[in-house]
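Summary for the lay section of the report: proteins are chains of building blocks that fold into shapes. Here we show the chain for non-specific serine/threonine protein kinase and then a coded description of the shape we predicted for it.
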Amino acid sequence: MTSREQTGRGIGPEYLLAGRYRLRSKIGGGGMGAVWLARDTLLSRDVAVKQVTTTAGLDNESAEEIRARTLREGRNAAKLSHPHSIGMYDVALEAGEPWLVMEYFPSRSLAQAMNLADTLPPLEVAQIGAQIAAALAESHAAGIVHRDIKPGNILIADRGDSLGIVKISDFGIARAKGDGSDRQDEVITGTPAYFAPEVARGDDPTEASDVFSLGSTLFTVIEGQPPFGIDSDAIALLHRVAKAEIYRPTKSGPLTDVLLQLLEPDPTRRPTMAQARDALAAVATGGGSVDQLIDIPVFSSDGAVPAWAHRTTQLPDPHRRNRLVGPTVTGLPAVQQNTPLGSVPSPLDLFSWPPRIPTGPADASTRDKVVAWAPLAMTAMVAIIIAAILIVLVLVFTV
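The coded shape description reads as follows.
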C-alpha cells in the first residue's frame, strides 16, 4: 500500500508507520494524543507508539510547539535507561509529524489499581516508592525534572515475566536543564492534587517539587485520597495545595515519617530524590538498601505479587468510576492548560490541618465520625440522667 493510499484511509490498525511500525490496536489515550500497540517489522518486537494530537488546522507557531514538545519528550526519555523507567527507542516521522516509539510494557497504572484496592499496605507502597525514586534520582542526575508524577503515570506489569515490576512513564511535560521555554511556561500544567505547594503558587517545578509529588502519590495509594483531599474544582484544589496544609496520614504505619519528610512544605528542607530512595528502601527492606529492590517485583507480606497487580484480577465495571480516576483517566482532574497563573481567583475558604468537619452535606467520612461518636454520646446522656435521678433522691430523703 502506498503512503498516499494509507493517508487516505487514515490512521488505524494495520497502518504502517514510517515504513517500519505496524499499528495493531489502540491501548491508551488522553488530551495529548493516543498510544498504540505496534509491531516493529525490522526488529520483530512489540513496541508502544505515541501519536501526538494532530497539528492539522493549527497555526504554524502552535503546530511547531507540539512538535517541539514531542521531540523534547523523546530526547529526555532517551537519556534514561533505568530498569524502573519506560524505555524510549525511537522518534518516527510520519508526514512531518513526530511519533514516539517506546518500550511496550503490558501493565495497569496505580490509578487503575485503586479501583481494585481502596488502599495499599505500607510494605508494598514503600517498595513502589523506592523503585520509582531510584528511576527519578537518575532522571534528576541527568538534569531532567519529570513534573507530572501521579498514580496514573506509575505502571505495574500485570502479566508475563515482568509481573509485579513497576515503572515511571510519561515524560511528556518533563524539562531538562537547557531546554528552551515555550508558551506552556506561562500556564499551569498537570494535576493539582499532586502539585508541590510552591508549584501551586506559580514557581517553576524543580527536583524538590518532584520529591513532593512522589510523596503525594504514595500518600494517595496508602491513605485512599491525596494529601489535600479531593475536589472536582481544580482551581479550588490548587489553592488548598498552595497553603501546604495536608491531611494527617493515619494508615501509613512505618512509612509515616518518610511520607512527612517528602511532604515538607519548604522545598529547601525536603530530601533529595536519592535520599528519598534510600529512606523508602530502608522501610521496604527492614534497613537494607535499594539494591535489594532493583528489577524485583513488588511483593506482599506473604512474599507473592499482590492480587491487585494481576491481569486476571479484573477491574470493575468502567461505568462505576473510582473517585481517584477522573476525566484525565490517569488521575484526578487536570487543571486546564489555558489557565494563566495570574488569572487564578482568590481562595474562597480556609483549609485547616487537621481538617475540620465539612459544613455542607455530610459525606461518608462525616457519617463515619458521627456513627463512631454516637455510643459515647449515648453513654454521656445516660450518665447525666442517672446523676440527676440520684440528686433528686438524695434531696427527697434528706428533707
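Put simply, here is one thing we learned. Residues 1-8, 172-188, 319-372 have pLDDT under 50 and may be disordered.
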